[in-house]
Amino acid sequence: MQFDSFSAFIDMGGYGFYVWLSYGVSVAALALLIFTSISSHKKIKQQILQRQKREEKLRQAAKLQQAQTRAEISSHS
Amino acid sequence: MMWKWLHPYANPETSYHFAGKILPWCTRLAFAFLTIGITWALLFAPADYQQGDTFRIFYLHVPAAMLSMGIYLGMAIAALSSLVWQLKLADASAAAMAPIGATFTFIALVTGAAWGKPMWGTWWIWDARLTSELILLFLYLGVIALHNAFEDKSLAGKAAGILALVGVINLPIIKYSVEWWNTLHQGATVSKLGQPSMSADMFWPFLVCFIGFSFLVTALICLRFRSEVLQRNSMRPWVRSLITNEEKAHAV
User: Which residues from A are below 8 Å from B115, CB to CB?
Assistant: First the structure.
């Protein structure tokens, strides 16, 4: 252990501001990178899922319409 | 011969699952190494006899700077294999690496400035080492912008790849800038093989930090690579069934 007390650790031999600025900015930048990487991964999955659901809905609607027209045609004849 | 070995990894589904398998291990190793390394660097490593406790910035600055160049080299190799052999996955990995490299370049620049102010008396100086590292950041930003500039991902990959390859010229300039030009920046300390110019009680925490950051980079590349692969293959049956299955697993 290089420091006798917590205040000496914070002070960093008088260079506390520069040392903690470096560590603070680095941690913040890495945290932001990790957070955006995870959230964009989730967002992409969400988008693919939503598109799939939309396609499924369209397919169902088309099927329903086809069935209706078929029923109309058969009732006319 | 190399092709046979590489063949399964040219398959997006295999690569997606492979990246997913190594991702948790890299995350754990990164966490372990960085916890030990940063504690060692901040609490137990000795202060430098000239630079005092500002030397603790070294344990962030040097790994970040080395990785900023290493990631660029990896990205350029990926870009080259994409342009020459039309490997679509190489584009995805190059796109995955760019934001990570940019972040590490940013960290190298900020920690360098915060170290330069107390030691040289200035936050910034337009000398060869600092300017070429700043150019590296702009190259990364250019590559990111080009990857996002086109709806067509293979066109975007081509444009970004050409910029990445042209920018490789900057790497030797960064590396040798401290020898070719007069600069405030000190020369290499850790990469001088065979003639260590650093004491062991400073070198070991550095090495632990460097390994930790390398694992973090690998984990982040895996994560972002998986996103890129999903985005580029979103219409493929394997992606569709994968997403549906995950949705079902969540709903239960």
Answer: 18, 22
- Among B38, B54, B43, B55, which residue's Cα sits nearest to residue A1? B43
Question: Is A1 touching B (CB cutoff 8 A)?
Answer: yes
- B242 found inside a domain: yes
Q: Is residue B8 part of a domain?
A: no
Q: Count structural domains, chain B.
A: 1
- Whether residue B207 is contained in a domain is answered as yes
Would you tell me which residues 3-62 of chain A have a C-beta closer than 8 angstroms to some C-beta of chain B? Answer: 3, 9, 12-15, 18-19, 21-23, 25-26, 29-30, 32-34, 36-38, 40-41, 44-45, 47-49, 51-52
Q: 222-241 in B: which are within 8 Å (CB) of A?
A: 223-224, 226-227, 230-231, 234, 239-240
In this complex, is the C-beta atom of B244 within 8 Å of any C-beta atom belonging to chain A?
A: yes
Q: pTM of the predicted model, to two decimals?
A: 0.90
B169 lies in which domain range? 14-45+52-190+198-246
Q: Are B171 and B72 in contact, with CB atoms under 8 Å apart?
A: yes
Please give chain B's pLDDT, 252 residues, in tens: 455 555 656 788 999 999 999 999 999 999 999 999 999 999 998 888 888 899 999 999 999 999 999 999 999 999 999 999 888 899 999 999 999 999 999 999 999 999 999 988 889 988 888 999 999 999 999 999 999 999 888 899 999 999 999 999 999 999 888 888 877 787 777 665 555 567 888 899 999 999 999 999 999 999 999 999 999 998 899 999 899 888 888 776
Token pair listed for A2? 């290089």
ipTM of the complex: 0.89
B185 secondary structure, DSSP code: S
Q: Which residues contact residue B161 at a Cβ distance below 8 angstroms, ignoring those fewer than 6 apart?
A: B79, B80, B82, B83, B91, B94
Residue with tokens 């040219």, as numbered in its chain: B10
Is B1 a member of any domain?
no
